[in-house]
Amino acid sequence: LFMDEIAIRVILNEQGVQVGMPIEKINLTQLEKFIEKTEWVKNAEFFINNKLVLEVKIEQRIPIARIFTASGASFYIDNEGWRLPLKQLTVLNLPVFTGFPTDQPKLSKPDSTLLQNILKFSTVIQQDSFFIAQVAQINIAPNGDFEMIPTIGSHTVLIGSVEQLEDKLNRLFTFYKKVLVPAGINAYEVLDLRFDHQLVA
Which of 26, 89, 133, 164 fits a 20 to 30 Å CA distance from 147? Predict the structure, then answer.
């Protein structure tokens, strides 16, 4: 998806690996370490097969969310919270989070906690086909609360923290099914899930 054979060949050539070079001149461990520094590579294995051909197996990092910072910069994160750069010409259907407070790669403790909360939120959404389709974006309020903007309807959903997120989304789904659809998709402006066991419309 993000690392193809051409990209890997370019990296190998940059490291001096050429077709026809003696096997003993190839440092497999060094090559693995080098290619694992590439942001999109999670794990790399290099080995020489029994036909004396260098084989490369790459495990890629797969993004699970796109994040926009307060200043407008953007990046992906994978399921470990690893920051990934944007790839041109790649369109991914991922949850979009806006309002992340910093562009800095090294995060303060509160920002690191917020990133972990984004990771949890994104993971939960991606396990549910309804919410993957229904979530247009999630705004991060200055206090760290999450506000969801749906793809259908003109309302805002106040989620608050990620605590009991599955329960909050279950309540929201039930409300959509039993109240919002019969009342009309634009009947409410704000749906508030921040309080335990209830939804305030």
Answer: 89
